[in-house]
Amino acid sequence: MILFKLEFKFKKYIFSLLNISVSIIFCLNIINIFFISTFANAAELTLNEYTRKPYGNVIFLRHTLAPGFDAKGEPDKFKIDDCSTQRNLNSVGIDQAIELGKIFSESGIIFQKIYSSQWCRCLETAKLLKLGRVFPEVSLNSGFRGIYKKEFSLEILSKLLDELKNKDGLFLMVTHYGTISAVTGIVVDSGGAVAYNAKTKSSIEILLK
Fold this sequence. Notes:
Elements: H1 2-42, E1 44-46, H2 47-52, E2 58-62, H3 91-107, E3 113-116, H4 120-129, E4 134-136, H5 150-164, E5 171-175, H6 177-184, E6 193-197, E7 202-207
Helix pairs in contact: 3-4
């Protein structure tokens, strides 16, 4: 009889532990889901969210769709002032740039200054936005096949961003995949945008569509 009672109590104890374990696992899963959800939300903003609560002082914009290869993959034939040696916007990329300009304009976002890589596809994207005068900026150039040294360009860009952190207004920088990912750690498709805080050096993607 005593043995039976001990066995019963032991089974009851084990059952209680199992219930506690299940509860703990459930709670941990809820917490995990919460953090994943929070991180996901923090990793990007819709344009409406951004306009309600602006983030940072710079928006990096990747040039719109431009299929192909620069100089057809032959670096020695590349010329910075000759668009025929570069990838250029196709009809989709042109329409995309025009549409992005309308989206920015309708959102009420005003840029203090617009910078662009000297690459033709970036300059064309920036001009098609029709949001203001475009200033070519060497530090935003691509590191394509070593024609421009990526490390050198990023060093200059870092100094420019450091200068802008104490200036009023919002600045647009139309550039390339490699430049955006190197500065912000965020990868975006053609026409994608990333908001950057020059003071904290933190970034967040802006969903423009």
